[in-house]
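Homework help board

Subject: predicted structure for assignment chain

Our instructor gave us this sequence and asked us to write out the predicted structure in token form, then describe one feature. I got the tokens but I'm not sure how to describe them. Can anyone check?
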Amino acid sequence: MAVNIRELSKKHIPFTGGHRLCAGCGASIAVRQMLAAADDPVVAGVATGCLEVATTIYPYTSWETPLIHNAFENVAATISGAEAAYRALRAQGKVEKEIKFMAFGGDGGTYDIGLQSLSGAMERGHNMVYVCYDNGAYMNTGIQRSSATPMGADTSTSPAGKKIPGKPGHRKNLTAIVAAHNIPYVAQSTPAHWRDLVLKTKKALTVEGPAFINVLATCPRGWRIPDDATISTLRLATDTCFWPLFEVEDGEYSINYRPREKKPIEEWMKPQGRFRHLFREENKHLLEEIQEEVDRNWNHLRRLARDEVE
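My token output:
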């Protein structure tokens, strides 16, 4: 399976500009790339969050595809129900064309309050693709920490100060949790690696059964980075192995990107204002702990992928 950039650039993408997502938002870039990968009509569901709120302000919408907006916690259930209805209509001969089903949710609506809905849809085996745009906090409602928030991040509910140095504890490994459901396809990607993201979306849309893609998506406000630093920041996330690019196909792990020189996690964290306090002398031990966790996770992934571990 290949991605032809010329053909891709000529495709009509059913997600228009003019929406009210922030400049530099990684989610909007990811959605455009992923919808460009679809060759069949798509029915999309979007959980309440930045993506939904800023692209469907009544009476306007940025979506040129059937769209279902539902509550914060149940987009997986909504789209699994739509997919089940579609299969019933096809069995009755009332619908003939091929239609794909995609659900989009942020980390708050996926890692946290939507986890039961996601798990149920994956376990039932619906033919759908669930996409998490992971920006590491509940950005839409005031930058509160989520279980996807990296350790040490300064958020409105884990403020860096005298009591705590940002969020205590490491983030949840949701991709591993979903992979444990033994579904046909699971992957991680970023919109900074467009070819990787488009290819993985194509794979996800063609497998029989559920698929899940976890996409790291910048939030300039929450991460406190310049609007034009989206791509460079996401590339640093992969070059430091904070966010490895990999996929799990029928239980088999494959690493899709190996940095020529693995950079220290400080290089990803230093440009982000949410980690500024960690570079004070009294907090530098936390940087060492975070680096150890990144190294441990990277080596564990390499073992799963039967890769050589130093």
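Reply (TA_rk): Your tokens look well-formed. For the description, you could write something like this. The chain is about 35% helix and 15% strand. That's the kind of observation they're looking for.
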